[in-house]
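Exercise 7.
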Amino acid sequence: MEDIDWSKCEDIERIPGKVSGQWIVVGTRILAACVTENADSSPEEISDMFPGLGVERTRRILEYARQHAEHPHPAG
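Solution. The predicted structure, written as tokens, is:
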């Protein structure tokens, strides 16, 4: 889930100069990539890893990521 366009996700923002301009969870310094890298864990486990994230917001972020992840197309 690396190539995600987060620009339309209400829970993710990019602020120049904050965390090197990377995509982060709104109002935090939690990288969007850190949330998606733990997608094999439950939303409850992920929100426990990142205080301030919350279970519902974790679910929304993971769902957005699943819907917007770039899927490689097989050569052929």
